[in-house]
Design a protein that fits this description.
Elements: H1 3-10, E1 12-18, H2 24-31, H3 35-44, E2 46-49, E3 57-61, H4 66-78, E4 84-88, H5 90-94, H6 109-113, E5 117-119, H7 126-141, E6 160-162, H8 165-172
Helix pairs in contact: 3-7, 7-8
Length: 173
């Protein structure tokens, strides 16, 4: 195993992308860069990236609207394989309070982009996001992530869903 492969097995590059909605989930994602979470990020081997084109894990938040659908598809297609997609927050998982908006895509972001991990909550706690990143790392280690974004994920590819991330985070405190 060369040095690049060894480094790739020990570190995961994570980028976040907001595709619309309110900024609550983006604030939870931004909180991950605070010193409070720095130790856990290091322990998990997580490196926060600015560019999705270099990421192993994409954290996607917001309600997908018709205007951003093509850009979201291109963004996911430009992310190198293997990759894991994480839907962050209720808007990404089920369109939440924006469900009746005619401007939104007919599918929630999680369905439209075929995400591997879903985190509920409005907004989800940073601890829940860290848990979802860990799950995405496990999926990547087994290379059990969906390939094409145009197709539905295979039935045998495992997913992970946090029913209510806020409850999970509160239990751990």
């Amino acid at each position: 195993m060369n040095e690049v492969e060894a480094a790739r097995r020990t570190a995961v590059l994570v980028a976040s992308v907001s595709l619309g909605g309110c900024p609550a989930c983006a604030q939870s994602l931004a909180a991950l860069s605070a010193p409070r979470y720095a130790q856990r990020l290091r322990e998990q081997g997580v490196i926060l990236m600015a560019s999705p084109r270099q990421a192993d894990v994409l954290l996607l938040c917001g309600a997908l609207n018709e205007r951003s659908r093509a850009a979201a598809d291109a963004l996911v297609a430009d992310t190198p394989q293997p990759r894991a997609l994480v839907a962050v927050g209720d808007c990404a998982v089920n369109k939440c309070v924006f469900a009746e908006s005619p401007a939104l895509s007919s599918q929630p972001l999680a369905e439209a982009l075929g995400v591997n991990v879903e985190i509920g909550g409005c907004p989800p706690a940073p601890e829940a996001i860290l848990t979802a990143i860990a799950e995405a790392q496990r999926l990547l280690a087994g290379e059990q992530v969906s390939g094409e974004t145009d197709e539905e994920p295979d039935e045998d590819i495992p997913g992970y869903e946090l029913e209510d991330a806020r409850d999970d985070a509160q239990e751990g405190e």
